[in-house]
Design brief:
heterodimer, A: alpha/beta, four-stranded antiparallel beta sheet, 11 helices, B: Rossmann fold, 10 helices, 38% helix
């Protein structure tokens, strides 16, 4: 049994201007101990997918159209109440993009650590366990930190506190959604090293969401590429970066400016991402694709099976 | 040669904090100078100094040789026309109630009372310069993608016929495939109009691509400046080295 199994998962958002098909038939399996990256641009559905694992998309406006999400054999889409609370934090820990907005400015770090521990069923010894957790994310002077407020911490320190909170319930899967995007590059490097260390030390399974191929490449063994609500390519990291098969993946790689090759200017992908309320028929990438054939305009390519999956008729 | 914009030993204080600490920097006609550094290093304050949106506590700011450190608004006319700015977040830079036509026509109107037909032609030409067709004139910001909004902001900045564009992280809020389009556009506009760029960015690769000179800022000081190829390939200052080492390698490249 795989740790995470997502099958034909479809999610829609209902709004005044119509229904957006935000996730369109996601098939994804994550084995225990793997480190999987999900990469894609704004609006491709990568964050919505990550939040789906914890049922964090408010329903409504979100509406589950079809499919199953199984975590450790349990059907997440049928969970309620206590089971859902156990899943959140004790099964899957999650770290979000903007560390400033996920801490409450009016409470101390100690109080906010204790809140999380209490939610996981602990009744006393909050300070000891908090210090232990804060030390595990390499925060110095953890005891003194308990009486500090979020505004007294740097962005990198806040993100470490949030990682400590995500680990408080001893999760098996860590979902990190753009964990370093709001941080400076030198701090980003340190936080990525910390995540890599925690994954090894605590034998965590990692699902890392990022728009940054460099961040994904630094931590992940396997990479999933999303476009307009669907997975379009899924491959071992080494294959994806050296031999990408989907035209969108190739375009994405060619668009990244390379510091070591200023003579090779980045190339943009012409056009823009489609509206999810009125997506183009067939392959959703076909209006921007230089390889598009008539089949691409009428039929949705399937992702297929195997270690290197690609949803493209031309690949 | 007299630089177009120059800061000479400028210090900017916000209370006890020195946002700029004795900085000297010059931008010459037609050159592209990249300004890199992390949050809080003073990059944006530097740019606001040249726009006279913050005042120097000490030191001198010059535009085409003229001291503008204490110049009053009425004396800043040439600066306002010839130095234009493009901001980081195109979603916040456009008035949601103004059509693309109105947004691009506004600076032209302020410059002189053209007739509407002439104005329309000028707006169409500016939009064509940034790769947008006439059909965009009637659209409102919420109907545009991030990349299209940034193109409108660039068209608006080009409207007064500037000699300098101050670009404050113009691609940081955009997706990578769109970022590449905007980099191409900025490079093309610069060679077409002989513009000078002061390009503020934390993305070293983009600076290397677009600029011939680079300056590195840390804690309100410029710690290193020189040819972009030299500064970003064989840096001398330890902070520049640390910055470069933090850049994640492109996997597979």
């Amino acid at each position: 049994m795989s740790l995470l199994e997502i099958h034909d998962y479809r999610l829609a958002f209902d709004g005044y201007e119509g229904t957006a098909q935000v996730l369109n038939g996601i098939d994804l399996t994550v084995e225990e101990g793997d480190a999987v990256g999900i990469v894609g641009e704004t609006g491709c559905g990568k964050s919505v997918l990550a939040r789906s694992l914890l049922r964090l998309n408010p329903e409504p406006p979100a509406r589950i159209v079809s499919g199953t999400i199984r975590f450790a054999g349990q059907d997440v889409l049928r969970m309620h109440g206590a089971a859902l609370r156990r899943l959140r934090g004790a099964g899957i820990g999650m770290v979000f993009q903007d560390p400033a907005t996920y801490l409450n400015p009016v409470f101390t770090i100690g109080r906010q650590m204790a809140d999380v521990l209490r939610a996981h069923g602990q009744h006393r010894g909050f300070a000891e366990r908090s210090i232990e957790l804060l030390e595990s994310v390499q925060l110095r002077d953890a005891a003194a930190l308990l009486s500090r407020y979020p505004h007294e911490l740097s962005g990198g320190m806040r993100q470490r506190v949030l990682i400590a909170q995500a680990l408080a319930g001893n999760p098996r899967l860590l979902v990190a959604d753009e964990p370093t995007t709001a941080l400076d590059v030198t701090v980003q490097r340190q936080v990525l090293a910390l995540i890599a260390d925690l994954v090894t030390r605590l034998r965590l399974t990692l699902l890392l969401i990022s728009h940054d191929l460099g961040v994904i490449g630094a931590l992940c063994r396997r990479v999933v590429v999303m476009y307009a609500g669907a997975i379009i390519e899924d491959a071992p990291a080494a294959d994806l970066f050296t031999a990408p098969r989907h035209p969108y993946t190739r375009g994405l790689l060619a668009a990244v400016p390379d510091l070591d090759h200023p003579d090779r200017p980045p190339r943009g992908i012409p056009g823009t991402i489609p509206s999810l309320r009125d997506p183009p028929p067939g392959c959703r990438f076909h209006p921007r694709c230089s390889l598009a054939m008539s089949a691409c305009r009428s039929h949705v390519p399937r992702l297929g099976e195997g270690p290197h999956r690609v949803a493209c008729f031309a690949a | 040669m007299t630089p177009l914009l120059a800061a000479e030993n400028v210090t900017v204080r916000f209370g006890a904090h020195r946002a700029l600490d004795g900085v000297s920097l010059a931008l010459h006609e037609g050159e592209a100078l990249g300004l890199v550094g992390e949050s809080g290093s003073g990059k944006t304050t530097m740019l606001r100094l040249f726009l006279r949106l913050v005042d120097a506590s000490e030191g001198c700011v010059r535009f085409a040789g003229t001291d503008i450190t204490r110049a009053r608004d009425a004396e800043l006319g040439p600066l306002r026309r010839q130095v234009q700015v493009v901001f980081q977040n195109p979603h916040a830079a456009l008035d949601p109630r103004m059509s693309v036509f109105a947004a691009v026509a506004e600076p032209l109107r302020l410059l002189g009372g053209q007739r509407r037909a002439v104005l329309r032609e000028q707006v169409a030409a500016l939009l064509a310069d940034v790769g947008l067709g006439d059909e965009f004139m009637a659209r409102y910001p919420h109907e545009l993608s991030g990349g299209q909004k940034q193109r409108v902001c660039i068209a608006r900045a080009l409207a007064p016929g500037p000699r300098v564009l101050l670009l404050d992280e113009p691609t940081s809020a955009l997706d990578v495939s769109v970022q590449a389009q905007i980099i191409e556009l900025l490079a093309a506009l610069r060679s077409r109009y002989g513009l000078a760029y002061l390009f503020v960015s934390h993305n070293l690769a983009v600076v290397r691509m677009l600029c011939e000179r680079a300056a590195v800022m840390q804690s309100g000081r410029i710690v290193e400046q020189g040819a972009a190829a030299q500064v970003l390939a064989t840096p001398r200052h330890p902070y520049t080295r640390a910055l470069l080492e933090s850049v994640l390698p492109l996997p597979g490249a």
